Amino acid sequence: MMLRVFVFFCAFTFFVSVLGERKEVLAQDDLPQAHRIVTLSPHLAEIVYAAGAGNYMVGVMAGTNYPAAAAKHPIVGGFNGVDFEALINLEPTMVLAWEQGNKLADIFKLKRLGIPVHILSAASFNDLEKQIIDVSQLFGTEKIGDELVVSINNRILNIGQQGKKNRHRKVFIKIWDKPIFTIGHDHYINEALKVCGVSNVGENYPFAAGSVSIETMLLSGADAILDLTVNDLIEDAEPSYLRHFHRFLSLRIIEADSELLMRLSPRFVDGLELLCSKITGLHKDV
Known about the structure:
Structural class: alpha/beta
Shape: globular
Helix content: 40-55%
CATH topology of the largest domain: Rossmann fold
CATH class of the largest domain: Alpha Beta
Largest sheet: 4 strands, parallel
Order of helices and strands: HEHEEEHEHEHHEEEHEEHEHEHH
Distance between the termini: 103 Å
Number of helices: 11
CATH architecture of the largest domain: 3-Layer(aba) Sandwich
Strand order of the largest sheet: 2-1-5-6
Strand content: 15-25%
CATH superfamily of the largest domain: Nitrogenase molybdenum iron protein domain
């Protein structure tokens, strides 16, 4: 009898040991692979780092310069599109693409190559929050992402309180000077400016971004020019436009950081906060 009990005990112990080893193997197999992220826009790299997934970054697009750690990664393309050889060599497990900024042909080619691509939209002001949540869920950093979203929303509420003082002023947005380029319809900056209590005079122009004449700008009815180029408006003007010089003198110039305001990343809120403060300052000066 004692022998049977001993044999049973040994068999049971062996079974438990094997089962434990099997569970350990299964647990290791179920662990997610280390992420290897490539971003196809500077603002997406900023979002990845802000959402707490920066340690997984391996490649970025030209122009990526924030945070400093992001600028150290290999470049996988630029204005002309993706450098597929450079990207493939990095063996990414996920490529983050910008719906409004990357070429569809490049995205389709990445998918044909079997490289996972996640497309993010940055078309509306609300997309800032959506991008952060999406990225944090992709890479398991939800706690950091949620805290960041709460912080951003609280800051925007505070900015909105300041914006109520600006009496719905109108601004002309200058994003390039030779020729003059401005923002038209369907752009997140138009929504963001309303937080400051101002609106874009060009928000009904028949383009998202396009060129206009100096005359169009000066006669746009704007109370101020939001200058994202910090270049002289008049020095290169044709003589026929100088008759509107008095109108130019009556306009206030608001200089702003284009890198902050033209990238829909968490730093966009920094740019918006500074911009709203300047606009409120203009109101006090009048």
